[in-house]
Amino acid sequence: MHDIFEIEETVGKTGKAESEAPYLETLNTPQLDAVETVDGAVLVLAGAGTGKTRVLTTRLAHLINSGRAYPSQILAVTFTNKAALEMKERISAMMGGVAVEGWWLGTFHSLAARMLRRNADLVGLSSNFTILNPDDQIRLLKQLMEVEGVDTKKWTPKSCISIIDRWKDRGLVPSSVSNEDVSDIADGKMPLLYSKYQMRMRAINACDFGDLMLHMITILKNPANKAVLDEYHQRFKYILVDEYQDTNVAQYLWLRLLAGGTGNICCVGDDDQSIYGWRGAEIGNILKFEQDFKGAKIIRLEQNYRSTNNILKASGALIENNGSRLGKTLWSDQGDGDKIKIGGLWDGEAEARWVGEEIEQLQHKGNALKSMAVLVRTGFQTREFEERFVKLGLAYKVIGGARFYERMEIRDALAYFRVVAQRADDLALERVINTPKRGLGDATINTLYSHARRHGIPLHDAIMDLTQSDELRPKVKSTLMKLLDDFGRWRSLMDNMNHAELGALILEESGYMSMWKLDKTPEAAGRVENLNELIGGMQDYDSMPEFLEHVALVLENQGGGSGDFVTLMTLHGAKGLEFDNVFLTGWEEGLFPSQRSMDEKGTKGLEEERRLAYVGITRARKRVFISYASSRRIYGSWVSSIPSRFVDEIPDDLALLNSQSGMAAAGRSRHWDSSGFTPKVKTPSIGVKVKTDSGDVLARGDRIFHDKFGYGKIINIDGHKLDIIFEHSGKKRVMDSFVTKS
DNA sequence: AGGTGGTTGATTTTT
DNA sequence: TCAACCACCT
Predict the structure, then answer these.
(1) A71 falls in which pLDDT band (50, 70, 90)?
(2) Distance, angstroms, CA A289 to C1' B2?
(3) What is residue A687's predicted lDDT score, i.e. its pLDDT?
(4) Which of A62, A406, A422, A704 has the fewest beta carbons closer than 10 A?
(5) Which residue has its C-alpha nearest to nucleotide C2's C1'?
(6) Å between CA of A182 and C1' of B5
(7) Whole-number Å distance, CA A321 to C1' B10?
(8) What is the mean pLDDT of residues A531-535?
C-alpha cells in the first residue's frame, strides 16, 4: 500500500552486539543501548534518518524474545495508523511471521477507544458509543450556538470547536477550564458551550477524538476507579511511544497514568521535528521528559543513514537558530555529496519552470520521477507546479486532498449504518432523515430537535414520542413511522445477517442507492461505483461495529498506486518520508515562515516554521533544491516578498545560488553557472500609485490608517483595491476609500 | 425544492 | 482568484 514511498527508516550497520540474538547484530552502539535499556524511563532522541523505527521494533521484539514480557503485556503507541501498520509488519517479519492481532499496538486513539469501550459506563456512556468526525462536531456545536443565541457569523462554529478541541488536548474538562482561558469569543460563552456540548454528546452516546483520551484520563485518575487503573498497571509491564514530540498534554497524562505501575516507559522522538503545535502538540512534553519521569535516561541517535553530509550540515546550521532544543548533531559516513542549489526567481511561474527544468535534467541523468518530491508550505502552491508539469508532460501526483471516506455518498451511506448500529446517533440520523427526499423539511426537523433538546433525549427517541402524539401532520407522521420501522428492522438483522449484505440491503431498501442510479448528473455513476466499493470493502471486517470503528479511526491509504511520478505535497505531509531529490519551494518571508504563524505565536511560531524547514531538508538523500520567487499571485492579488530568512540560514559554503537577473540575491557570494536561466521579459503588472476620492495619493510602501484594521503598510495596489499588511490583523485587501495616509 | 447572485474569507492535518 | 455559503427568489 505504501510501495511508492520508502518509509522513514534506514538500517544500522556497525553493530557490536554482545548478545547472541541475531536481530541485535545490525545495530550501532547507541541503537543497541536504546534496545537493551529496558527498565525505567528512557527517551530516545532519534534524529531524522537515524533508524528510529528500527529501534522501536527491535526493542519490542527484544522484550518478548528475552522473556521479559508477553506481547499482551506491552503497550506500543504510535501517532498514525500508517506508523502502527508499519510496526506490525516489521515485528511480524522480525519474529518469523507471528500474528500481531490482539496486541496492544496501535494509535493513541484506537487504543484509548479500546479501553473506553470496556469502561464506558464509568463516564456515562454505553460501550457502543459513536465516534464523531469533525464535521459532526461542528454541526452539533452550531446547533448549540444557535440555541444559546451566539452569532455564528461573527464566531464560526469551526473556530469555536477548535477552542474546545485545544482544551481537550490540554486535558481540560468543562469544570477545569479556568478564567484565563476565557476570551470574548462567542460572547464569552465558550465554557458554557463546552459544557452543553459535552452534555449533548453524552445524551447521544457519542465521543469526539479528544474525548477518547479525555474520558480515559477522567476514569483512570478517579480514586473510585482504582481497580481499573490497577488492572492496567498489572497488564502493561512495558510502554513504548513513537513520535513523542507530537503528543499533547492529554496524551502525556494518559501515558503517565498508565506508566505509574512499573515505570517502564520508552519514548522515541525528535524535538527538532515537532511541527504540530497548532493542533495541540506540546513540544514541552519531550523537552521536560527528564523532569516528568524521574531518573530518565536519554539516548541520542546521531548517526544518519539517509543523507549526505552537506544536507546534514545545512539542516543542522538552520535548526541551530532555534532556542529551546535538546540538541544533537547528525553525521553520516556517506561523504559530502552535492551542494544545495538555490534558485531565486521572478515569480511563481518562473519558479515552476525552474523546478520543471531541474526535474528533466535529473531524469536525463537516470533518476526516476518517483525519486523526486516537490514540497510546498500550503496547498494552493501546488497549482502552479501542476500546470507546468502538465505542459511538460511530467507525470505527477498530488498527495493529500479529498479522501474516500469524506465523499458525500460515502458519508451518507455510513450515516445509515451508524443509526442502525447506534440509534442515538443524532448527527447521522439528521444527515439521512431526508436523503433521499421524503418530504421532511426544516420545519419538521426543528420541531423534532426542540423536543429532543427540551427532554435531553436523542432525536430518535424524540421521533418515537412525537409519532405517538398529534403534533405532526399525518403525512409527516407516517413517513417518520415508516423510517423508524425500517431502522428497527435493519437493526434486528444485524446479529444474524452478514454485515456487508446488510449494508447493501439498507442502501437498497432506503432508496438511497436508487436515488443515485436514477440521477443523471455526470458524477452519479461514480458515486454508485463508490458505494459498491464501500460494500465490497466491508467484507474485510468481522462485523458492522468493527467496520464503523475502522472508518472512524483509520485514515485512508493515501498515495497508493504504482508508476513513476513526481510527488507533490505539503511539508507536513512529507514528514516520515524520504526521497533522493527534494525541491523546497516558496521560501519567502510571509509564506514560509508563514506570517500567520508568526503573528499568532510569535517566536514559538517562527521556531515551529523553522522545524518545518528542517523536516523538509532532512527528507533528502542526495539533493536539495530551494527556490523563492520575488512576487507571486496569492488569492488573486500580487504579493512581493523578500527571500525567506531560512535561505540565509543555510551556510554559504554548502550552497550554490542563482537568481534571475535584476533580482536581489539572498546570499552574497554563492553563484553557480547562470546558463540555466533565461531572463524573464515580462514583469508582473503591479500598480504603484493610486489617487483616492479624497485626494490622497497612496503609493506602495506607504504606512496608512484604516478605520477597522488600524495601521498597516501598503504592499500592492490594484486599481482602487489595496493589499495591506496590517500590524494587528495581517494581510487584507481593502478599498482605498477606507484608508488614510498616516 | 432548486437555482442564483452576492458576500466572505482563505495555512499546515491526524485521529 | 475562487469556492463555499447564505439569503432570497422562482
Answers:
(1) very high
(2) 59
(3) 46
(4) A406
(5) A635
(6) 39
(7) 30
(8) 89
Which helix or strand (DSSP H or E) is residue A466 part of?
helix A459-466
Check if residue A475 sits with its Cβ under 7 angstroms from strand B: no
- Which of A197, A187, A188, A203 is CA-nearest to residue A144? A197
Q: How do residues A182-230 score in pLDDT, each as one tens digit? A: 888 888 889 999 999 999 999 999 999 999 999 999 999 999 999 999 9
A732 CA, B9 C1': separation in Å?
A: 10
User: CA A522 – C1' B4 distance (Å)?
Assistant: 21
Judge if the beta carbon of A223 is closer than 7 A to nucleic acid strand B: no
pLDDT at A668: 36
Assigned C-alpha cell, A334: 556517506
Residues of A with catalytic annotation? 52-53, 242-243, 273, 619
**Higher local confidence (pLDDT), A470 or A385:** A385
Among chain A residues 174 through 213, which have CB within 7 angstroms of nucleic chain B? 209
| CB within 8 Å of A310: residues ≥ 6 apart | A336, A337, A338, A339, A340, A654
The reply to whether the CB atom of residue A439 sits less than 7 A from any atom in nucleic acid chain B is yes
Q: Which nucleotides of B are covered by protein (CB under 7 A)?
A: 1-2, 9-15
Q: What is the DSSP string of A145-157?
A: HHHTT--TTTS-H
The string of pLDDT tens digits covering residues A35-69 is 999 999 999 999 999 999 999 999 999 999 899 99
pLDDT of amino acid A558:
53
DSSP code, position A121:
G
Which contacts of A507-516 are long-range, i.e. CB under 8 A and separated by 24 or more positions?
A507/A413, A507/A416, A507/A531, A507/A535, A510/A416, A510/A432, A510/A436, A510/A486, A511/A436, A512/A412, A512/A413, A512/A416, A512/A432, A512/A435, A512/A436, A514/A436, A515/A435, A515/A436, A516/A409
Task: Decide: pTM greater than 0.85.
Answer: no
Positions of E strands within A293-450: 297-301, 340-347, 372-376, 396-398
Helices and strands in chain A: count of H runs, count of E runs: 27, 24
More confident residue, A559 or A645: A645
pLDDT reported for residue A722: 67
Distance in Å, residue A445 CA to nucleotide C8 C1': 21
Q: Is the CB of A81 under 7 A from strand B?
A: yes
pLDDT tens column, A597-642: 998 888 999 999 999 999 999 999 999 999 999 999 888 888 888 9
Cell of A322: 532555534
Which nucleotide is closest, CA of A636 to its C1'?
A: C1
Q: What is the mean pLDDT of chain A?
A: 85
Here the contacts of A447-456 (C-beta below 8 Å, separation 24 or greater) are A447/A471, A447/A472, A449/A143, A452/A426, A453/A147, A453/A200, A456/A199, A456/A203
- What pLDDT is stored for residue A690 in this prediction? 63
The three grid cell numbers given for residue A40, joined into one nine-digit string: 525505567
A553 C-beta less than 7 Å away from strand B:
yes
Residue A69 has what pLDDT?
92
Residue A690 near residue A716, CB atoms below 8 Å: no
Judge whether A283 and A605 are in contact, CB under 8 Å: no
3-state DSSP assignment of residue A13 = coil
Place of cell 447506534: A422
Is strand B less than 7 A from the beta carbon of A156?
yes
Q: Is the peptide bond before A134 cis (omega within 30 degrees of 0)?
A: no
Strand C CB-contacts below 7 Å:
A 633, 635-637, 733
Residue closest to C1, CA→C1'?
A636
Measured CA to C1', what is the nucleotide nearest A609? Answer: B12
- Interatomic separation, CA of residue A163 and C1' of nucleotide C3, rounded (Å): 25
- Contact status, residue A214 vs residue A170, Cβ threshold 8 Å: no
Condensed to tens digits (0 to 9), the pLDDT of residues A296-312 reads 999 999 999 999 999 99
